[in-house]
Amino acid sequence: MEIAVTYSFLHKFVFYSLALLFFITIFVAISKFLSLVQAQGYIYKLLSDVKNNFISPEAAYYELEDYLYSRLWILALCTTLGPLFGLLGTIFGIMISFHTMAQQGTSNISEVSKGIGDALIATAAGIGVSIISLLFYYLLKAKADKIKNRFKKELADIERRRKV
Predict the structure, then answer these.
(1) Does 46 map to a domain?
(2) Whole-Å CA distances, 59 to 3, 50, 70, 142
(3) Scanning 55, 60, 70, 138, which has its CA 20 to 30 A from the CA of 127?
(4) In a domain, 139, yes or no
(5) Neighbours of 62 (CB within 10 A)
C-alpha cells in the first residue's frame, strides 16, 4: 500500500509538471507573438533615436535584439524539459509495473498494464509538450530574425545617408 501512495504522488507530479510546461509554453508563445507584432513601434523609436544621435546604431541594434529574443529561452527550456518529465513518468510507470509483478506475480495483468499504460501516456505527453514548444520557438525566432534583418537594413540606410 505504501508504494501506491508514493506512485500516486509521483504520477501527479509528472503530469502536473507536464501540464504546467504546456501552459507556460502557450502563455509565452502568445505573449511573445503579441510583442513581436508590436515591435514596429519600438523599431520606429529606436530609429528615431539613432537619427537624432541619442543612441549609436550598434547600441540600437543590440537593444532591439534583446527585445526580440527575450523570453524565447523559456520555450527552449520547455522543449528540453518536456521529454525529460515524460521519461521520468515512464520510469515511474515501469517501476510500478515491476513492483506489482514482484508483489502479485504476473497473474494480475491489469495492474501491470496500468503502470505500463501510464508510462506510455507520460512519454507521449512529454514529447507532445516538446513538439509544441519547439514549433513555437522556431516560428517566433524566424519572425524575430525577419524583424531584425529589416532593422539592419534601416540602420544601413541611415549610415549611408550620413556619409553622403
Answers:
(1) yes
(2) 58, 9, 16, 22
(3) 70
(4) yes
(5) 11
Tracing cell 553622403 back to the chain, one arrives at 164
Q: Supply the Cα-derived Rg of the chain in whole angstroms.
A: 25
Name the burial class of residue 82, with classes exposed (0-12), middle (13-18) and buried (19+) by CB atoms within 10 angstroms of its CB. buried
Is 14 within 8 Å of 85 (Cβ atoms)?
Answer: yes
Note down the domain range covering 89: 2-159
Contacts 24+ apart (CB under 8 A), 103-107: none
Amino acid at 149: N
Count structural domains, the chain: 1
Collapse the DSSP code of 57 into the 3-class scheme (helix H, G, I; strand E, B; otherwise coil) and give the result. Answer: helix
Q: What is the pLDDT along the chain (164 residues), one digit of tens a residue?
A: 455 546 678 888 999 999 999 999 999 999 999 999 999 899 999 999 999 989 999 999 999 999 999 999 999 999 999 999 999 999 888 888 887 787 776 666 777 787 788 889 999 999 999 999 999 999 999 999 999 999 999 999 988 888 87
Q: Is 78 helix (H, G, I), strand (E, B) or coil?
A: helix
